[in-house]
Amino acid sequence: DPARRQERIAAVRAELGDDVLVLGHNYQREEIVELADFVGDSYALSTRAAEADAETVVFAGVTFMAESADIITDADQSVVLPSVEASCPMAGMAEALQVDAAWADLTEVASADSIVPICYMNSYADLKAFCGEHGGLVCTSSNAARAFEWALDRGETVLFLPDKHLGVNTARDLGIDDATVIYDPWDPDGLDPATALDNDLVVWDGYCQVHDRFTTDHVEAVRAEDPEVSVVVHPECRPSVVESADAVGSTAQIRTLIEDADPGETWAVGTEIHMVNHLDRWADADVRALCGDACSDCNAMRQIDPAAVLWVLESIADGSTPNVVSVDPETAEYARTALDRMLDL
Ligand code: 13P
Ligand code: SF4
């Protein structure tokens, strides 16, 4: 019974007080964004985690976000992920072992110092550690351009992993798209390492299945239906979609844009469907999904069920903290270097 569950959540939160901070990503379902202490994009959630005083951070998001929070928080704080199934498929598209093998190929034809790796926040801790160890950094959808500029100042070529769409969209922003290639080291017909490194930017061949499904046909269809509509999309969308939209931004940037819109403005939003529905509730503007019924939720984010949040909170109150996300100290040290470089940007 959702009403009974909400009562229990309110009661246990009152009991736990400031000992527990609940962070929620914008893609979480309504009941969770309503109960979270702070809701935001990956960047804002990482800064909130870094500032947190609470003994325990309950992270209503996905594994890579909880890992980053664990790396950024103090050693005596715990980070709890209410469901261990909440894993972003895109983060799994560049595993550290695969990247090590590709790095060996690339550094056979160029010095390691000339290649600066950047990983998207949507990656596991071992890939962040790889970037930290090799002079690189982490970025999110809200600071990718700044991170790329930082890296281009320090090396000949930037290697960006794993999201090809964010990589190419950022290259376009910076005017280096003519010197950008998508690299799949296992494609027998693909680029060889030396040809790839002739470019400013080498982008791993990963993508988000929630955002990759948007096409320019969806943008044309909403415009045909309503010529007054404005379109905003997330930079994990295909470059053709980003180019045809009126605006692009991280989930927090999309939220700010829509909340600042005037009443009567109409916005079609190309991102995860729960967030589109939150914006429709929160904003004065008329908000619709970019592709109607075909817009999807994120299977990883959906794993965070309100019942699981209640279970972790009641367990913490009972003295047994479940689902603690803990990155091993050596990985955490290098990954922290890469995260700190981003936070210092
Ligand atoms: P934001 O950093 O924009 O919140 O994006 C996270 C994400 O997973 C988008 O798919
Ligand atoms: Fe990963 Fe895409 Fe879900 Fe974001 S929306 S967490 S990138 S699968």
From TrEMBL:
It is found in: Cytoplasm. Iminosuccinate binds at residues 25, 42, 120-122, 141, 234-236, 251. Pathway: Cofactor biosynthesis; NAD(+) biosynthesis; quinolinate from iminoaspartate: step 1/1. It is an enzyme of class 2 (transferase). [4Fe-4S] cluster binds at residues 88, 208, 298. Its cofactor is [4Fe-4S] cluster. GO terms for biological process: 'de novo' NAD+ biosynthetic process from L-aspartate. Keywords: 4Fe-4S, Cytoplasm, Iron, Iron-sulfur, Metal-binding, Pyridine nucleotide biosynthesis, Transferase. Its EC number is 2.5.1.72. GO terms for cellular component: cytoplasm. Its main location: cytoplasm. Binds 1 [4Fe-4S] cluster per subunit. Belongs to the quinolinate synthase family. Type 3 subfamily. PANTHER family: QUINOLINATE SYNTHASE, CHLOROPLASTIC, QUINOLINATE SYNTHETASE A. This is Quinolinate synthase.
